[in-house]
Structures are given as structure tokens and as C-alpha cells.
Amino acid sequence: MSKLNQIVSPLNVQVWFNLLKSHMMQHRLSAIGLVIAVISLSTLWLHNLTTVIPSILGGSAKWALLAGLAGFAATTIGALPVLIVKGISQRLEDSMLGFAAGMMLAASVFSLIIPALDAGQEIFLSRFTASLVVVVGLGLGVLLMLGLDEFTPHEHDKTGPCGPGHERCGKVWLFVFAIAIHNLPEGMAMGVSFANGDMQVGLPLSTAIAIQDIPEGLAVALSLSAVGMRPLYAIGITALTGLLEPLGAILGFALSSGTIWTYPVGLALAAGAMLFVVSHEVIPETHRNGHQTTATIGLMIGFALMMVLDTTLG
Prior knowledge:
This protein has a two-stranded antiparallel ribbon. It has one domain (26-313). It has 12 helices and 2 strands. The longest helix is centred in the middle third of the chain and has 35 residues, at 90-124. The protein is mostly helical. 80% of the residues lie in helices and 2% in strands. It starts with a helix and ends with a helix.
């Protein structure tokens, strides 16, 4: 049996449709939230389409795509040590993930929420209206990620597989889908941050995400190696998960660059998605092994580094 057959289980469209339908009936609130998020995002993308397409290869769009590619490269570079390193201690892994969580938290606040509030106030000439717009964006980001988490088959390292049809997917693909869910909002954040052509927003955020992608890439590659995958395959699969970042960057840019009022909404949406991932996935994962203190110190270091980057580059 080939490697591909070992990874990919046979799929049947009708079976998958029935599994998804059954799962939606069991989780109606999450399904409704996902539908609301998808309709809202689709509306914004269609609204901005005529503006984005002519500029997709130039100007701010170019920087957004380059930022996403930098995240992809950082993820791949982070995976390379798996060629010579067979594993790291659980304490070190938890501290690395805590560091990544700290950078994501700080990026959400300093590079997404605060610029969204400033842009909203400038557009709507009201702090209260700007706050409401940011809250709506945050909510859409949370609904999107909650829906993707609920309806995408994936596996968490400690809590096991979940999502409709997870029993029909190979273990490796479940893990890949889990990482892809993490990487998509990071890419979207990069794209949104460049949508207004403001390097003071885009540069520190994209730098921070690329930095935290390195330990994240190593953790992913080591986890794949631990389930028996050869190092080169582990690096290749990790790189594939990193491709979600340039894709997300394009989607994020398209979401926020067409009309001026979509910019603060897009920033807040990316922040909500990243905050969801940090709170729902990363922090709980680092606290399941008895290394809460180490993980928290890593988080504080990551938060402080991102704050310095934002102050220096922003």
C-alpha cells in the first residue's frame, strides 16, 4: 500500500454529506453561527471583488501575499530540525507553544484591535460606533472559527479526534486539518493588516506571526514524526499546512480592501479568529501536561516581544 493510500481514506460524497447533515442537526447553534459568518464574509468579498482583482498583483496586495509567503517559509524552516532532532521535552514544547500564544495575543490587541478602533473612529467619527463595528468583527471571527472547529474533522494531541466523519480520515490528515485551522486566521490577519496600505500595521504583525510560526512548525513536524512519519514527509506535510497562510493572506486582503468601512471590520474579524484559536486551542494544550508555569512564562515573553516589535516597527 502506498504512502498516499495510508494517509487518505476512501471518500464517498454521499456518506460525507449525510455525516455533515447529521452533525449539523446535533450542533445547530454552531451550524447557524458558521452560516452567518460564511454569508457575511462572502458578502464582503463580493462587495470588494471589483476593487481587489485589478490590484491583486501590485501595491498593498503584493505585500500581503509576500507576508503570507513569509509565514509559509517560516513554518517550513521551523520544521527542518526534525531531520536531526527526534524529539524535545514536553516542557520545552509547552513553553514554545506558550510563546506563540503570547505573540498571537499581543498581535491581536496591538496590531489588530487598536488599529481597528482607530480606523473606525476616523471613519464613523464616533468612538461608540467604532467599538460596535469592532465587536461585530470580533464576533464574526469567533463564529467562523467555531464553525470550522466544529465541522472540520481534525484531531487534538491530547483530546483525540472530533468533527463529522473523523473516523473515515487517516490520523495524519486529522492532524493536518487541525493545524490548517490554526494557520488560516494567521494568514487572514496578515492580509487584512496590509489592506489599508499601512506598513506600520502590517509589518510588525507579519513579523510577529512569522517568528511564532518557527516554533509552531517544529512542534508540528515533531508530532508527525512521533506517529511514525519519515522526517522528509513530516517536513513536507508541515509545509503544506503553511500554505494556508498565503491563501489566508489573499482572502484577508480581499475582505478588507474594497471599501473603507470594511477595513476595521476585517481587522477585528482576524483578531477574533486569532483570539479564538489562542483561547480554545493553544493555551489549553499547553496546560494539560502540568507545565502551566513554564507555558505562562513563555506566553509573557512572547507577549512582551510582540509589544516591542509593534512599538519599534509600528
